[in-house]
Amino acid sequence: QLQESGPGLVKPWETLSLTCSVAGDSISRASHFWAWVRQTPGKGLEWIGSLFYTGTTNSNASLKSRVSISSATSRTQFFLNLRSVTAADTAIYYCVRHSFSGFDSWGQGTLVIVSS
Amino acid sequence: SYVLTQPPSVSVAPGQTARITCAGNNIGDKSVHWYQQKPGQAPVLAVYDDTDRPSGIPERFSGLNSGTTATLTVGSVEAGDEADYYCQVWDRSSDHWVFGGGTKLTVL
Question: What is the average pLDDT across A5-28?
Fold first, then answer.
């Protein structure tokens, strides 16, 4: 099970920081990646980026300069930092486990609103 | 960047078959995954690797992928199938995961 946590309100130009807690699994598994996906209100899904157990990350080119994804040494949490947010970053943010055969386990999602 | 195109909406009567398409350049060369998202819920993987179903997904859900179009078929549609459906691929050339824009399935 995956569970997102973090502030529901972020001011413009500040950094959005979210944590995903992984229960019953470990980020150390070589068989899966750990990702962030967002969904703007009433719109579709957007892949933000993924983390592999080695610490290697890959992120969406449209966000790459503002995104960092990392994991805790406990290997049961991973994090999203999105810098210099604007209203366009208002969305539901999901943490997800995946392989190349799809995104098979999703958190419930957390709504983050960017507003002053 | 790679683009996946889905129809915004598909409507079908209960008991009939719904077909949701996902178009992309040579999509037949890629593995397509499909997600079902009901209102207020996270997406759920419904079909992976073009044709396979995770455990717990009814056999009524099936997928095909060839040429420039992948298709999710929902047979004997029920009211509970009403949801948004998204296709997804891994685009190796850009190292990106790409989602289609989503299709709202309405059960009449």
Answer: 95
What's the first-to-final CA gap in chain A, in angstroms?
A: 33
> Which chain B positions have a beta carbon within 8 Å of A47's beta carbon?
96-99
- The shortest C-alpha distance from A45 to chain B (Å) reads 6
- The minimum CA-CA distance between A14 and chain B, rounded to whole Å, is 26
Give the span between the Cα atoms of A80 and A20, in whole angstroms: 8
Contact B35, A94 (CB under 8 A): no
Please check the confidence at residue B35 and state whether its pLDDT lies above 80: yes
pLDDT for position A48: 98
Cβ-defined contact of A61 to B102 (cutoff 8 Å): no
Q: How many CB atoms lie within 10 A of CB B45?
A: 23
Q: What is the CA radius of gyration of chain B?
A: 13
